[in-house]
Amino acid sequence: MLSKRGYNPVQAETKKKKKREQNKLREERARRYEEKLSHRNVGQLERQISELTALEGSQGLNAHDKQILQNLQKDLAVIRKKNIHGHSVGRIESEKTKEEERKFKPRRPFIPKNPKKSAYYDPVFNPYGVPPPGMPYREKEEESSETDESVIDIPMPEGEYPFVEKKKKDKNKVRNIGRRRDEPPSTAATPINEPSNTAEAEDSHKAEAQIEDVVTEYSAQPIVRDLRKEATQFLPAAVRSQKRKSREDESAVAQNHAEKKQNQDPDNEMNLSPYLY
Description:
The chain has 277 residues and is mainly α. The chain has a domain at 12-92. The chain has ten helices and no strands. The protein has helices at residues 9-38, 42-58, 63-82, 95-103, 149-152, 171-174, 198-213, 227-232, 237-262, 266-276. Helix 2 packs antiparallel against helix 3. The radius of gyration is 58 Å and the shape is flat. 1% of the residues are buried. This is Ww domain binding protein 11. Residues 1-35, 89-206, 238-277 are annotated as: Disordered. Residues 4-81 form the Wbp11/ELF5/Saf1 N-terminal domain.
């Protein structure tokens, strides 16, 4: 197969690639258009087209309305051709159905006279007791005081009802809990760890009360700090040695001065005294 004169394979491949991209964009645009039409209401489209056509026959349309009418007719034709159904499928409307729709009156919601008797009553979410859509109205069942047949056959135990006293703080009275009134007090032996007579019991209660009333107090004296002494601890070693040396020199000078004063001759002072006066 002879190659054509002036054939450029790179340029041909570029054209094919460009054509493939155009086809892909065209398909993407068509898919988006069909997806948009799937959300359109067919009945509403037909109603708008009929209104615009009636207006066109009576008084005519301007350029903007004509463009809208053409777009609506185009969308409806695409929906019917490709069998695209939106959220609500259009239906054939006639004068008879329109007349029936005019006569139809929406049913008002039933509001009971006593909302609290309604089975759907709620003081916050449903204060009127209105039943939800599609549910019949029901009232609450009256609570019957009659005993169930299955419970009647159960035999009751003989004797009086068990008596239980209220809990008390006194330990001596706590022992009588669970005993009937007509039953004599228990003659059981007193435990070893409990006092045998009332006097010892009272003494033990008083001792416990005194122990409970003891309150421990904690106190502390203020801490006195010598800030000058603490500040000197942070001085460098060279400065501290220099200060120590200066103090030692001062003490040595004072000591020498005192020694010189003590070593002075008292006779010389007496000889010079007449000249001074």
